[in-house]
């Protein structure tokens, strides 16, 4: 329709494309270097005009970011790394984690059966051979990371303890020869004894201790920690003298120290990391009840609920009240069992209910008591705006705009509806970005009532669903998704409305294979 | 048109309304207290559903924030306070600064003509009488701030040195009895000798030293600083033990320490403060060149430029190149004069050019060389979406939708265009929020080519223009606004295109009285 859109239909460089991997000398001599250090960059949403020669070469724009983790074992590094990767991938930045521990375990397989590379002696700073092997492993990981960035990756995360200045200097030195890479050190510090004890107990179920007696494992891990602690140097003055950008996270966002942060992407990462918490809670998500437009198959619009949709709405209010009470009891039980710090009192919190500004979602929460729930309606949760295709059926779109229909089929993620204001999936992702940060920030449980495309996008974030699968996710009407983030994974349950019994039943079939 | 909109047309509580000032006991006993602590809150954009009794009482929702500044004199507190106030007001949160220094100067008028309350002796921590007077002044300011919040204000900023733990404890104790107030301490630390020397020289032109000999003034200020330094206690361990939320800013965003930040608004403040810098630069803003729709007076749409618009575009590229060179020379001259740290090298930076995704702005920058400028097109800068009124003239809107025309006239800021996706000024403000943070973050100069409403909103932010005036600002076609942020104020120049001479001339008339 409009020529504006076509140039954005390029999908982001895939990690497996490998078709354009400029060597570092290419990069240094091209205008690429100077250009790449500039400002705001949102894949598919902000479009950069390139000089002809770069356009022709299919050069990538936007700088690369290397995130280097720092921290003692069991300080939540992997938790942070996982969340950060998930968030960045959802924002459509190709992100990959390079874990040095896994490399060590793979490297040690075969060459010594006694597992000496897992025992605490391997982590003794006095053990020079072991130290040199550990440095080699870390630098090999870094090389792999750099090679991957050159093949089209955007953010590489070096997941290791990197606990000495010497090691960090090695890493910085290597990265200085890559003109197109920004770096961000992220240190995770945990001083909360409850969280620490829990992290350590999780560690003992790691592959390093498989098949080992629990007491022996615990003793070995304690000694490994001691060895790390002997040599541990926190981020600070030396990094500041050298101007190295870093961020220290103390007790999961409770305290954050950010130094010399550079670049749009690093700023986004830190804002995200600043805002999360470990409160036990649930997030329920649902589409609105059936609307009059749903019955005739029209997309978009602002129709009210059908009588059936109204019955769903009434049942939803009762069901969520029931779920909420059950969740509160479960958390209290787990608190007594020592799983959470006892100070966390969830029952006193007002639960949040968020809907879009459209009639069908607002009507869906009409039976919720505004004294019991903090109910907010917001434009951010509105359905994807279909521009010229608003209030048409898919059959009508295919008939009237066959080329649009085909373009959408080919690349549903980047396809932007024609007409003023028309949106694409990636436009909606950017629109929802502040909401994701807010969802991570608040401690209360939360119900989100929204629309098909927005629900897919939110579930893709929460459940770490691949971008290729996201636009194809089956999300039916009258279904509630319950997402429970736990320190080491997210539990999804699906509840479907049984219209005859006017109650919900749990669907045991995995919804997004 | 749609019932959704009407309930949002409430304007934010004005500072001078005074019609509902619940006493603190009212607040504690009402559901207000529990509710107010919840999540995302964007005036006019996120709508909270209230229980009937609160709706009837015209109760305000959303918690109040008290920002308490901490820092030695000449550390940039007032600069931070000014920017923060401007940003929050632009986001439509009623914000007011309560400056203790001004109160001291007013208080001392009359009761002693010798100006003893300005001389360094007044700031000696050993001087008990003076200390007690200073505490009283600070606490009086705080009372005034609290009273103002109760009358409908949202964010009160207590602008004083607040440099001792004792003082801060007094403040915290007073605020604890206000259930609806969150608090955020912000400390500004400056260790850069160039910035510090510059700040001190600015201080000597303050009212405290009016008419005083320069050497005497400088000596007095040095002694005042020494007195403060004697008693100065930075934010840290004690605040952390008590869980007091704080943020330390070292050298304007170079290093940021955030502790226990609570609430949506405080998080937004910190993200904003983290992202600014003092690089010398210019921001040029312009609407697109005349479009074919401009000729016939249609709003919205995606028309290309008229031949006249194309001539403007060609001239704009030459003019900006000229302006850019001139600015670069001026900065170099000022650097030699010691006004900026010599390390700041602006000439090597690629200048950014941002436009919307619409044809008329993209065509307006077509003559810019993509090798010389980092050119980005983004949806964030698109014109306000007029929904059902897109591609109509104002006359047509008045004829077809007289009620809409009237509603818009009455409250242009909150008026949302009818029809799916229709936007209001406040919707556009929220959409532009990430762009403002990015604009503050980048160090390079910047040209923004956008549309009438977006230009008004951006200029209102940059020039601190009142929300009532913003929707009425006269922003003509073929005019370039040059905004130059300086440490102590922003300089605006207006250049108009002279079509015959095909060049720009400076318009000396103040554009926004």
TrEMBL record, chains A, B:
One of its GO terms (biological process) is fructose metabolic process. It holds the Pfam family His_Phos_1. Residues 62-280 form the 6-phosphofructo-2-kinase domain. InterPro entries: 6Pfruct_kin, 6Phosfructo_kin, His_Pase_superF_clade-1, His_PPase_superfam, P-loop_NTPase, PG/BPGM_mutase_AS. It comes from the Eukaryota. It comes from Actinomortierella ambigua. GO terms for molecular function: 6-phosphofructo-2-kinase activity; ATP binding. This is 6-phosphofructo-2-kinase domain-containing protein. Residues 1-32 are annotated as: Disordered. Residues 10-31 have a biased composition (Low complexity). Keywords: ATP-binding, Nucleotide-binding. The keyword Nucleotide-binding applies. GO terms for cellular component: cytosol.
């Amino acid at each position: 329709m409009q020529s504006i859109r076509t140039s954005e239909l390029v999908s982001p460089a895939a990690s497996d494309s490998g078709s354009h991997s400029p060597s570092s000398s290419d990069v240094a001599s091209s205008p690429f270097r100077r250009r790449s250090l500039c400002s705001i960059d949102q894949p598919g949403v902000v479009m950069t005009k390139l000089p002809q020669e770069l356009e022709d070469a299919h050069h990538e724009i936007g700088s690369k970011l290397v995130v280097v983790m720092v921290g003692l074992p069991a300080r939540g590094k992997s938790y942070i790394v996982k969340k950060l990767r998930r968030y960045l991938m959802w924002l459509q930045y190709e992100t990959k984690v390079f874990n040095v521990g896994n490399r060590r375990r793979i490297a040690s397989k075969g060459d010594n059966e006694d597992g000496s590379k897992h025992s605490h002696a391997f982590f003794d700073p006095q053990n020079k051979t072991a130290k040199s092997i550990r440095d080699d492993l870390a630098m090999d990981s870094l090389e792999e990371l750099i090679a991957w960035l050159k093949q089209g990756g955007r953010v590489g995360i070096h997941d290791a303890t990197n606990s000495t200045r010497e090691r960090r200097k090695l890493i910085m030195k290597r990265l200085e020869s890559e003109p197109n890479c920004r770096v961000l050190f992220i240190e995770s510090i945990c001083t909360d004894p409850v969280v620490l004890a829990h992290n350590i107990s999780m560690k003992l179920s790691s592959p390093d201790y498989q098949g080992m007696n629990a007491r022996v494992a615990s003793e070995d891990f304690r000694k490994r920690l001691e060895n790390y602690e002997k040599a541990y140097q926190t981020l600070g003055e030396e990094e500041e003298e050298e101007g190295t950008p870093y961020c220290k996270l103390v007790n999961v966002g409770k305290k954050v120290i950010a130094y010399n942060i550079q670049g749009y992407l690093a700023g986004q990462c830190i804002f995200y990391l600043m805002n999360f918490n470990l409160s036990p809670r649930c997030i329920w998500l649902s589409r609105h009840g059936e609307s009059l437009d749903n019955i005739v198959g029209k997309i978009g619009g602002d129709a009210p609920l059908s009588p059936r949709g109204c019955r769903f709405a009434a049942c939803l209010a009762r069901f969520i009240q029931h779920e909420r009470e059950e969740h509160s009891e479960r958390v209290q039980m787990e608190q007594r069992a020592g799983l959470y710090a006892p100070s966390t009192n969830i029952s006193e919190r007002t639960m949040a209910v968020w809907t879009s500004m459209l009639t069908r979602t607002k009507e869906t929460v009409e039976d919720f008591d505004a004294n019991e729930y903090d109910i907010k309606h917001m434009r951010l949760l509105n359905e994807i705006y279909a521009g010229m295709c608003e209030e048409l059926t898919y059959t009508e779109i295919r008939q009237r705009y066959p080329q649009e229909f085909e373009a959408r089929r080919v690349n549903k993620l980047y396809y932007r509806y024609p007409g003023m204001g028309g949106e694409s999936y990636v436009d909606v992702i950017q629109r929802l970005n502040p909401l994701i940060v807010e969802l991570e920030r608040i401690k209360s449980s939360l119900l989100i009532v929204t629309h098909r495309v927005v629900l897919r996008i939110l579930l893709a974030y929460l459940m770490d669903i691949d971008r290729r699968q996201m636009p194809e996710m089956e999300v039916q009407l009258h279904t509630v998704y319950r997402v429970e983030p736990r320190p080491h994974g997210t539990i999804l349950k699906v509840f479907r409305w049984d219209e005859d019994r006017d109650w919900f039943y749990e669907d045991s079939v995995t919804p997004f294979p």
